[in-house]
């Protein structure tokens, strides 16, 4: 609703105008907490809100004439602001008139010249008084001091103006009285009444008995307020029925109401052409009342009077003004739709359609304008905000009046958006593939994970940790192998990695922001341990049990004897003379704890200490005769066999094989004795040896397949890692 108060002008400071807080529904105890206050707009309003009681009280002198002039009623439009929640109320304060201004005549003394031949009943126009008050306080009545020659005649022109005439009631006799002094009194209808006086000094002449007369007593002229200087306003014309010099008329401007317009108009004394001399402003003065006198050139000049009413017409020469009465920034990005961001008011000094203002906001989203009262708007949120997309808005409020052409005004507002924690950290990769060589140093950096949070300040500050429950492929947890730096996301090795113990470690890293409540994101890390050639080949005992590699006697009965020394393994085998080429004498068995090429073994025979009667299979490890054995080969052949892997650098192990040669029966007997002494009894025949060779060949095939499979997995891991990094 509309709250309206009235207060008489000149009320004392501290006078209570109205119980503003109570009328607006604000509790007495909440006046200061909700900051009930007036919004300043240009000149002081003369009233203020009492901080304790919330009443509207007079704070300074209220002069209705100064505030509103002759306008009635005199209404001050106030804006009252209250917070929590933010609201604006519009209050109208009517300043009522008291009779504090007395009527005033333009001049305290008026000189009139009247020819003695002037006929009774002749009228002499007088300038009326003006009263700055309004209503009954400005309704004037006139009284002339007693005189037998003159009376006062008052004619009503309209509701606000009266024309005064001094009427000659009796023929004058200059010789009896050459000068008449009268007092004209103007009284208003106020309580108590106030009055003003003007002295009339009437000089009587006995010549030139006809005064100039205008063809119109009132000239009405409309002028646009943008009329250029030098424009002719009107041409007045007065005639004098006298002859000769007494009929020659000259024109002057005797008075202009209001007095500020005295320098705006000039009249040509000969032609009576009234010309505009200065700029007009409808917003300051809308009507000028110009008193024009026509004086003849007789020995006793006679004067005729007329009025020129210049009505100033409004043009659209004032642009609208936009005021920001309240601004609530920054706006949280999760603010609900309809949130009030700013309160605005607009004004235009023009009138009519020229003063009607229409407001828009640019850009049209995410904010909009809502009209809350006449010439008052609220800037409200129309669409959801996202600080990560737009962190600050430059909003422009545009005002346009209804003139032709319209005038415009703009007001820029900066609306920052405050952050809320609405974005979880996101890793650059969902899965990180990391390759790490075994035997790395403790504390070595393995990789770096990185997560981005588009929020700002603490909401966007990310810390990293190993997720609870992340574990290795074995029973030991991932935290026993790796750690993550909370700030940088760097992954560190806590201990050297051993491929033979751990091939793949998969765990998750969690990124948590510092918002309230905090948000998090996870990424999976697959750590592949790359094998190093850190294990030398290891020789195995005979397949049937024993202490080391095994040998088969050439006579057909398997036999072996193994001993270890600081230089390698020693092996004894027996063969008979006459054994054909290709006869398997012994088989060396070895394994490598590494994988891939590092575990792929090859067997080499160093230069023999005999005539090269034996050879060894490159990958099978089978020692066989290179040719038929002869007695010339001696009773014993010593072979040095090297088992070497394919790593870089290659690692190796050596075995010394001593082959005793003899007749078939001796070799068989030696084989039996050797077997018994070594603690292993191997039975079989050549057929059994061949079966063992077949089993060994099958084992080698599976070893090759395993090497290829491991190499393929390694190659695939390298390709995936490279692709993810790219």
From TrEMBL:
<keyword id="KW-0732">Signal</keyword>
<keyword id="KW-1003">Cell membrane</keyword>
<dbReference type="InterPro" id="IPR002126">
    <property type="entry name" value="Cadherin-like_dom"/>
</dbReference>
<dbReference type="InterPro" id="IPR050174">
    <property type="entry name" value="Protocadherin/Cadherin-CA"/>
</dbReference>
<dbReference type="InterPro" id="IPR020894">
    <property type="entry name" value="Cadherin_CS"/>
</dbReference>
<keyword id="KW-0472">Membrane</keyword>
<keyword id="KW-0812">Transmembrane</keyword>
<feature type="domain" description="Cadherin">
    <location>
        <begin position="215"/>
        <end position="322"/>
    </location>
</feature>
<feature type="domain" description="Cadherin">
    <location>
        <begin position="106"/>
        <end position="214"/>
    </location>
</feature>
<keyword id="KW-1133">Transmembrane helix</keyword>
<keyword id="KW-0106">Calcium</keyword>
<dbReference type="GO" id="GO:0005509">
    <property type="term" value="F:calcium ion binding"/>
</dbReference>
<feature type="transmembrane region" description="Helical">
    <location>
        <begin position="701"/>
        <end position="723"/>
    </location>
</feature>
<dbReference type="GO" id="GO:0007156">
    <property type="term" value="P:homophilic cell adhesion via plasma membrane adhesion molecules"/>
</dbReference>
<feature type="domain" description="Cadherin">
    <location>
        <begin position="323"/>
        <end position="427"/>
    </location>
</feature>
<protein>
    <submittedName>
        <fullName>PCDA5 protein</fullName>
    </submittedName>
</protein>
<dbReference type="Pfam" id="PF00028">
    <property type="entry name" value="Cadherin"/>
</dbReference>
<keyword id="KW-0130">Cell adhesion</keyword>
<keyword id="KW-0325">Glycoprotein</keyword>
<feature type="domain" description="Cadherin">
    <location>
        <begin position="579"/>
        <end position="661"/>
    </location>
</feature>
<dbReference type="Pfam" id="PF08266">
    <property type="entry name" value="Cadherin_2"/>
</dbReference>
<keyword id="KW-0677">Repeat</keyword>
<dbReference type="GO" id="GO:0005886">
    <property type="term" value="C:plasma membrane"/>
</dbReference>
<dbReference type="InterPro" id="IPR015919">
    <property type="entry name" value="Cadherin-like_sf"/>
</dbReference>
<dbReference type="InterPro" id="IPR013164">
    <property type="entry name" value="Cadherin_N"/>
</dbReference>
<feature type="domain" description="Cadherin">
    <location>
        <begin position="6"/>
        <end position="105"/>
    </location>
</feature>
<feature type="domain" description="Cadherin">
    <location>
        <begin position="428"/>
        <end position="539"/>
    </location>
</feature>
């Amino acid at each position: 609703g509309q709250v309206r108060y009235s207060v008489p002008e000149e009320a004392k400071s501290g006078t209570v105008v109205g119980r503003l807080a109570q009328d607006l529904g604000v509790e007495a105890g909440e006046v200061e907490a909700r900051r009930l206050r007036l919004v300043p707009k240009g000149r002081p309003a003369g009233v203020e809100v009492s901080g304790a009681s919330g009443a509207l009280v007079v704070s300074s002198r209220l002069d209705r004439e100064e505030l509103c002039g002759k306008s009635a009623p005199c209404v001050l439009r106030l804006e009252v602001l209250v917070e929590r929640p933010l609201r604006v109320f519009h209050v109208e304060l009517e300043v009522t008139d008291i009779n504090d201004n007395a009527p005033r005549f333009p001049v305290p003394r008026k000189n009139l010249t009247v020819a003695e031949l002037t006929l009774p009943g002749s009228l002499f126009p007088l300038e009326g008084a003006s009263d700055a008050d309004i209503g009954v306080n400005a309704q004037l009545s006139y009284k002339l001091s007693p005189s037998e020659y003159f009376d006062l005649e008052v004619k009503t022109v309209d509701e606000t103006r009266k024309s005064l005439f001094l009427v000659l009631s009796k023929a004058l006799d200059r010789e009896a009285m050459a000068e008449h002094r009268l007092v004209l009194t103007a009284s208003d209808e106020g309580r108590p009444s106030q009055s003003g006086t003007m002295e009339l000094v009437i000089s009587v002449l006995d010549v030139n008995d006809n005064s100039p007369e205008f063809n119109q007593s009132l000239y009405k002229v409309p002028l646009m307020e943008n009329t250029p200087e030098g424009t002719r306003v009107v041409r007045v014309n007065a005639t004098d029925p006298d002859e000769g010099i007494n009929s020659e008329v000259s024109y002057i401007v005797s008075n202009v109401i209001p007095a500020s317009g005295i320098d705006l108009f000039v009249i040509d004394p000969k032609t009576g052409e009234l010309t505009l001399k200065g700029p007009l402003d409808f917003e300051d003065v809308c009507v000028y009342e110009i008193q024009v006198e026509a004086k003849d050139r007789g020995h006793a000049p006679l004067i005729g009077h007329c009025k020129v009413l210049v009505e100033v017409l409004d043009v659209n020469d004032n642009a609208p003004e936009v005021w920001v009465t309240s601004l609530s920034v920054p706006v949280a990005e999760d603010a609900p739709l309809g949130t009030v961001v700013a309160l605005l008011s607009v004004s235009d000094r023009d009138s009519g359609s020229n003063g009607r203002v229409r407001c828009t906001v640019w850009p049209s989203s995410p904010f909009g304008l809502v009209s809350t009262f006449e010439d008052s708007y609220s800037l409200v949120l129309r669409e959801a905000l996202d600080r990560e997309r737009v962190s600050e808005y430059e909003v422009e409020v545009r005002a346009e009046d209804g003139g032709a052409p319209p005038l415009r005004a703009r007001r820029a507002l900066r609306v920052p958006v405050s952050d809320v924690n609405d974005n979880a950290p996101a890793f650059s990769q969902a899965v990180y593939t990391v390759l790490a060589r075994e035997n790395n140093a403790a504390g070595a950096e393995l990789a770096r994970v990185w997560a981005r949070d588009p929020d700002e300040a603490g909401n966007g500050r990310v810390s990293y940790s190993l997720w609870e429950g992340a574990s290795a492929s074995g029973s030991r947890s991932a935290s026993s192998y790796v750690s993550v730096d909370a700030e940088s996301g760097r992954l560190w090795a806590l201990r050297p990695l051993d491929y033979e113990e751990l091939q793949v470690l998969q765990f998750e890293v969690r990124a948590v922001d510092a918002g309230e409540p905090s948000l998090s994101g996870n990424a999976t890390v697959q750590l592949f341990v790359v094998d190093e050639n850190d294990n030398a080949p290891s020789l195995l005992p005979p397949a049937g049990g024993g202490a080391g590699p095994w040998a088969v006697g050439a006579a057909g009965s398997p036999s072996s004897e193994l001993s270890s020394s600081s230089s390698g393994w020693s092996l004894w085998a027996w063969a008979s003379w006459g054994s054909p080429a290709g006869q398997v004498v012994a088989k060396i068995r070895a394994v490598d704890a590494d994988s891939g090429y590092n575990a792929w073994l090859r067997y080499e025979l160093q230069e023999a200490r005999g005539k090269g009667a034996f050879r060894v299979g490159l990958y099978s490890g089978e020692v066989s005769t290179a040719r038929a054995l002869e007695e010339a080969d001696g009773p014993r052949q010593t072979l040095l066999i090297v088992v070497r892997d394919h790593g870089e650098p290659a690692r190796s192990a050596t075995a010394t094989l001593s082959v005793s040669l003899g007749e078939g029966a001796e070799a068989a007997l030696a084989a039996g004795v050797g077997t018994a002494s070594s603690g292993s009894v191997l039975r079989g025949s050549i057929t059994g040896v061949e079966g063992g060779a077949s089993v060994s060949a099958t084992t080698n095939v599976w070893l090759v397949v395993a090497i290829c499979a491991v190499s393929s997995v390694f190659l695939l891991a390298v390709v995936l890692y490279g692709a993810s990094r790219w």
